[in-house]
Amino acid sequence: MKYYLFLVVLLLLANSYFGQEYKRPQFVGGKKAFHSYLGKYLSYPSGEMEKGTEANLTATIYISKDGKIKFVNVMGSTKEFRDPLKRILTLMPNWEPGLLNGKPVDTLITQEVYFSIEKERSKKNDTLIYESIVYQVPMSNKEFADEQKKWKDQALKQEKAKITFDKASEEVGKNNVLAIDLFHQAHSEGYPKNVLYHYNLGVAYLKAGIKDTACMNFQEAARKGDMEAYNLYLKMCR
């Protein structure tokens, strides 16, 4: 299956780190080899494109001073996207470690991965598109512990948003006003405005008699590739 990953990039450090000589870690063989590794093992999750699901993930990789992958954390979207990416990054071979004043150091890398249906469908070939530069920062043990706490807090927040979204979905057709409130609450807690969000919210608005807003959500879900939402939009909103 064709897929396109956009690794959105920002270089945090150049070749110095607070006045010290710093050499960034790299995948053995460089950027091209790293892209080849991802291209070999990572694909658009099965069924997610058909559902119109896109994803913007942030992967944080802790590379130890001996080049080993010490820790990987992936945030954003759903586990269908997060889990395969985390597994593939965790199983990476050793990197060339970062160097600070010529000595190997533990380094934290942050990289974004974007799965886009629009980009996928607009291409005529199987070329993978990567644009890859990353945040890279030498880390102390305390800084790493602080990062781990932040990741755990973010994971708990995502789980809370998913629970709220599931409660909202259960209320559709029962108490649609409550369902609408819960959908908006889920988004405020961090649940993404994906196809499922817009479709379910549209159904709740439709059953609550608020047709215009329902149609806006069906249209948005259809724009993201959901045919059921598109058919509902044609039937109810045209």
CATH superfamily of the largest domain: TonB
How many domains would you count in the coordinates?
2
CATH topology of the largest domain: TolA/TonB C-terminal domain
Give the name of the CATH architecture of the largest domain: 2-Layer Sandwich
How many helices? The count is 8
Number of strands: 11
First CA to last CA: what distance? Answer: 34 Å
Q: How many strands, what sense, and barrel or not for the largest sheet?
A: 5 strands, antiparallel
Which of globular, elongated, flat, extended, rod-shaped describes the shape? Answer: elongated
- What class would the helix/strand composition place it in? alpha+beta
Give the SSE string.
EEEEHEEHEEEEHEHHHHH
Strand percentage, roughly? 15-25%
Uncertain segments? 1-17, 123-135
What does this protein look like?
This protein has helices at 30-41, 79-90, 117-122, 141-171, 176-188, 195-207, 211-223, 227-237; strands at 5-6, 16-17, 20-23, 26-27, 55-63, 69-75, 95-96, 98-100, 103-105, 107-115, 135-138. By secondary structure, the protein is α+β, with helices and mostly antiparallel strands. It has two domains: 5-139, 2-Layer Sandwich (TolA/TonB C-terminal domain), CATH 3.30.2420.10; 156-237, Tetratricopeptide repeat domain (Serine Threonine Protein Phosphatase 5, Tetratricopeptide repeat), CATH 1.25.40. A hairpin with a 5-residue loop joins strand 5 (55-63) and strand 6. Helix 6 (195-207) runs antiparallel to helix 7. It is elongated, with a radius of gyration of 21 Å. The model is unreliable at 1-17 and 123-135 (pLDDT under 50).
